[in-house]
Amino acid sequence: MYGDSATIRKILTESGDIWAVVGLSSNRSRAAYGVAEVLKRFGKRVVPVHPKAETVHGEQGYASLADIPFAVDVVDVFVNSDLAGPVADEAVAIGAKAVWFQLGVIDESAYDRTRAAGLDMVMDHCPAIEIPRLAPA
Question: Which of 3, 33, 39, 124 is the most buried (most CB within 10 A)?
């Protein structure tokens, strides 16, 4: 398991509220759309990163992480596992504090590289599942 409960909690509560969601488009049937909606409901600013650079949930989209003209705290990755490693590397390059690979997105070498670079990382988890668990009962 790549992401213990302490790391999950830290990313969701301490790493910051600006989340770049890689793979987020205006397609409402995609998981990224719904997850971004949940993140917004819990106070996160969700920045779409997709080749189309569409505005989603009221936020301007960007074609790549490098195109975002402000600091990003967490990079949430909704791309196929074979494309996820370069996204993690780009997250390190832009100075993000954490990387989150969604359910089913697994790249062990990217996990190791990202952690070695000093970032927190969770892999094969969904923040929309985890964040409600942190809310006080």
Answer: 39
Q: What is the pLDDT along the chain (137 residues), one digit of tens a residue?
A: 588 899 999 999 999 999 999 999 999 999 999 999 999 999 999 999 999 999 999 999 999 999 999 999 999 999 999 999 999 999 999 999 999 999 999 999 999 999 999 999 999 999 999 999 886 65
Cα 19 from Cα 15, distance rounded (Å)? 10
Q: Does residue 47 sit in helix, strand or coil?
A: strand
Are 66 and 42 spatial neighbours (Cβ–Cβ below 8 Å)? no
3 vs 12: CA distance, rounded Å: 12
